[in-house]
Description:
The complex is a heterodimer.
Chain A: H1 18-23, H2 28-36, H3 39-49, H4 61-66, E1 76-82, H5 91-98, H6 100-114, E2 116-123, H7 130-143, E3 159-164, H8 174-181, E4 205-209, H9 210-222, H10 224-229, E5 231-232, E6 235-236, E7 239-245, E8 251-255, H11 261-266, E9 280-284, E10 293-294, H12 295-299, H13 311-314, H14 318-321, E11 329-334, H15 339-353, H16 359-376, H17 382-395, H18 403-427
Parallel strand pairs in A: 1-2, 1-4, 2-3, 7-11
Antiparallel strand pairs in A: 5-6, 7-8, 9-10, 9-11
Helix pairs in contact in A: 2-6, 2-9, 3-6, 5-6, 6-9, 15-16, 15-18, 16-17, 16-18, 17-18
Chain B: H1 5-15, H2 27-37, H3 44-53, H4 58-65, E1 79-84, H5 87-91, H6 94-105, E2 118-123, E3 135-137, E4 140-142, H7 147-164
Parallel strand pairs in B: 1-2
Antiparallel strand pairs in B: 1-3, 3-4
Amino acid sequence: MGRKLLLEKAHVEGIRTYDVYRREGGYASVEKALKNMSPDQVTEEVKKSGLRGRGGAGFPTGMKWSFLAKPEGVPRYLVCNADESEPGTFKDRYLMEFIPHLLIEGLIVASYALGSSRTYIYIRGEYAWIPDILEQAIAEANANGWLGKNILGTGFDCQIYVQRGAGAYICGEETALIESLEGKRGNPRIKPPFPAVKGLWDCPTVVNNVETLAAVVPIINLGGEEYVKIGVGKSTGTKLISACGNINKPGVYEIDMTISVEEFIYSDEYCGGVPNGKKLKACIPGGSSVPILPANLLFKTAKGDTRMMNYESLSDGGFATGTMMGSGGFIVLDEDQCVVRHTLTLARFYRHESCGQCSPCREGTGWMEKILKNIEYGKGKMSDIDLLWDIQRKIEGNTICPLGDAAAWPVAAAIRHFRDEFEWHVLNPVESQQRNFGLAHYADPRPVPATA
Amino acid sequence: MVFTEDKLKKVQEIIARYPDGKQKSALIPVLHLAQEEFGGWLSAEAMDYVASLLSIEPIEVYEVATFYSMYNLKPVGRYLFEVCQTGPCMLNGSDQIIDYIKEKLGIGVGETTSDGLFTLKTVECLGACGYAPMMQLGKHFREHLTREKVDQIIEECRSRATSMN
């Protein structure tokens, strides 16, 4: 059983309420930070912890904080990114629903470190019931002196507000999120200037993911050096993984990044294997935009090492034979799934979510969807596969924000690893409408366990 | 077309969350309020009203209302079924659920039943991938959908509508 830092108390009866949360040791990190540490010491501790952004990019959080400009007389803002929208990802929702005070606690400590007196939680509009839960927790924190004026007599003022979005994946990109919070369309901004210099209302701003901010709590409680010891290498601490697709036990799991991908899928502590005795075909381990891997490359890297559930091991081999940790949205495909159809749904998603600012993304995502639709419905040509490859290459790296890359990668990886399945669709336009391609040379390298 | 006193108070509360002069930030939350208040969709009149409340130009409201997928720019049925069809839901049979709802209600995607009760919409990933297939119905998610569950949900909506009339 791996160590849990975030969800350890998530199932304590009544943990959503302040009294129970406090009784279980909640808000200790606020006391420690505000009474015994300077804001810079808090940032230093987060740097030492090696915490990497949990939204998907994996950028070191302490470093991001240290970039925040601090001009005299200009307000600074902390914004919590709760616009969780990457297909396969539902971990932040879980954290906010079950243990909302953990996020509020982390936000107070982070606001203190950054000097933010007005802190916003930007939550995706579809999570329409969660703002009530968060606002309840904020009201309780206010009533107990953890928010408001002169918190714990330190002279630090802070208030947290919840802002609901209205349906736009792109608002998970930090500059689009800022635009949206200003009451505009979610069009990403050109960087530089970075939000750390010019963010919300042109003021210095830090945008961090929900899980990242929650992780600040154990970092302050344990100390950065202790946090580093949990995990491995540059994958420090714990990570929430939201597992879905064809598995026996979908849900949110906290892992300490020292377990193998194989154990994560087959162990009863986590996903519990593939249902109905079926074989594993492929997996997208970090949210829909990261490369899909066939089963053989999922369990072992190209060098033959066991692939582990951490940042370095998942990306071992680069995009040729590896993938990414991303947001931790872990999507499993069994032997009966069609990679072409699955890729089509993702292409449709990115076409739908493109903000339309940059032509490679606006046009390219639509073309990819159309071509994939033709292939999936038996109207594809062999040259379409190369055309798809060509389009995705022309999107990647040619857009203001990473949505272009996010749209290109799933298509590229599907062709890279499953080209024969695309070709089979083209060559068998009638048969491909009646059955799926199934497994091929990339079949599960493991026998199906007898009990599965 | 005006808000009730309660709603107007709520608008003032929202504006107070931002620094002075940044009331445009209230636009997205206030559009949610307007959609709730004015029959589940945003007419040009509703959008103009929101612009006047926030002292911004109507075009600033249209720009935003047309960008975000949760705002309905046409009337919708009393119960809006928003069924997710993205990868993880598709792996768990969302295509079959969408087909079943179409058959059961006798409407296509984007259409409303003749009694004005139901509208079917397909949406992209709502963050319930582990509890697929799913749909959003009002404020909440309905998860682990099966044909039986769809039947129950439709019944539930019908009886709620009857008791309200």
